[in-house]
Structure formats: C-alpha cells, structure tokens
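Lecture 7 notes: from sequence to structure.
We start with the chain below.
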Amino acid sequence: MTGQLAFVESPVQLLNVLEWAHTQAPGEPPAPALTVVVLSPTDPMSRGQLRRMAQLARDEGLTVHWQEARGGRGALVRTLRQLAPPLRRADRVVIGDPFSRYVQLLLSLFSPRHLTVVDDGTATMEFAAQLGRGERLVRWHRKGNLGPRELVLAPVTSLARRRLAPARGRTVEIFTSLPVEAPSGVEVTENSYAWTRARFGPPALTGGADLVGTSLVETGVVDADHYARVVAELARAHGATRYFAHRRESAEKLHRIAVETGLQVVRPELPLELIARRGPIGRTVVSFPSTVVHTLPLALAGTGVKVAVIEVAPEWLRATASPRAQGFLSGVAGTAAHEVDRLTARAAGAAGNVGPAGAAGAA
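Predicted structure tokens for the same chain:
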C-alpha cells in the first residue's frame, strides 16, 4: 500500500472518498495508487453498508483493505503495527472523521505531507470552525467538560489537531459539499457529487413524500417524545409513506415510529445519496437538520425532487443536550441550499402546525 492512503469508518466517508477520487481524474477510473483502509465499526448496520460500499469502490478500481480495528483485545496494537509501514510511505492521507480517536492516534504517530478531509456528516462544519479558531476538537453534541477518558487522550488529541492544520511541509484540503469557512492556509474543494450523478440514475419518482430520519435522539440531543410527534405530523402533512432510517437509530425507536405513524421504515443498504439517485424516491424529501439537506440537492440535481428541512425548536432539546446543540442545528438548517424549503413546527406538545417557515401558523 503506497501512494495515497484513505481511512474510512462509515459508509458516507467511503462515498466521499470515491467522489474525491473522481475529481482527481474526471471521467477516468480512480488512480490505483489510492488505497482505502476500512477501520471497521462494530454496529451491524454500518458494517453492512460499508461492505456494499467497499465493493462499489473495488468496482471503480480502488484497492480496499478491511481492517477489524475494533475486534477485541489487541486489535488497536495489531492495527497500528499493520498500518505503520504504509502510513510512512503515503504521500497523501485522506480521512473522513478528524474527530475519530482512531484517526487522531494515527496522526499523532505519523505526519503526512498532504492531508485531505472528506465529509462524514455536518461535523465538517464544526471541524473547520474549530480548526480556524485554534480550539481543541470536540464533537458538537458533546458536553465541553473533559471526562477521565478525554483527559488521558488529551495529549493525543492536541498533537493530532496540530497535524490536521497546515504547516511548513504539509498541505491540508477539505473536500466538502457543506458551506465551510476555510481556515487560514486550508484549501477547500467543492464536492458536487459528480461521481454519484454519473454512476446512478436518474431515479423514478413516486407521487408522495419520503421522510429522512436522524440519530438526534440516540445522541441525547432531542427528546424522544417530541421527535415521535413531529414525525407523525410530518407524515400526515406531506402524505409521506416511507421513513428512511439513519444507520444509528435504535430498533425500539423505529418500531415506535412504524406503529404510531404507519410509515414504512426503510433501513437503506447504501448511503441515502445513492439510494435516492437509484430510486424510486418521493417527489418531496423531508429531513431533520443533517448532511442530506446539503447533499441531496446536489445528488438529485435536475430530477425535479424537492428537499425540505424541518427546523428543530429549542423545546425539543433534552436538558442534557450540549449548549452548542441549538446553534449548530440552526446553522445546518439555515445554510442549506437556496432551493431547500425550510419548515418550522410548534413544539411543547403542539407539533401539529407544520408548514413552510413564515407561513400562517408557523412558529
């Protein structure tokens, strides 16, 4: 494994590595020098999607190595030992999650000459902002206080943050479909989902709407009861029939949604951008604040599909949510593409009035 090395831990990261490789030689197969290392997660949903994405990457000519990085005792040491030689030889390293402890540990041991960060959700926006302000890297939904684990790993995180910043002899690129403000010295390259559009579709459209789920309940940000009520109201208001589950949503919550709303809960086998592009997909796609309100308009450009984002009201947030949660989620919704409709809803037990932002009855 030489040349360019990519580390991915989620299906979306691997999709965006494919998009980045496509920009290096549009219309041509990706360079064989790019090797993708999958640092396999433990949850079955992510593993299944990653297996399918890995095969797509191989079909495109990439070399893919599956690494059981979390496979029990000794996995960390074994992984570091196996990855050390190719990391030393790699001229460029591509990563999907700069907040990953695994990636931070690798970067603290080896400093690449060229570094590219691809999207793994809206966290890219927070990464760019924190890097620009010189802050320590903390996921937006986490509390600011350092726990015992964070204190132990603080030196690793601090060194990795420096390795993620441009310096003499090191370039840093952010390859993103999101609106980020480039930190000083960082090159920002637009991800327009050109590979996805060229490879799949256009999709057949259904007459109704589809809802896109989120893991905001699972991450402790949004109250579960508020979430369930809003999903039910959105389904009624838009005539939705399907609910595309986020890969981290719990089986218990999805069962509740299916029973209480009558929606068909779909667990996608691939990232939603590919599922939507292959179709069939609803003429309207309604989502909570997430990456898809930025990526789906790009992936579905020219298809006639309308994307809408439902804004999260402060009343939906749990008392234990990070103080930054409301501002971050508002920023995700507020910076969505101009063609994305913005919806509001009354919270506090009255999720019933859902409509276009600014319309009569909107909060």
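Points to note: DSSP finds twelve helices and 14 strands in the chain. Residues 44-59 form the longest helix (16 residues).
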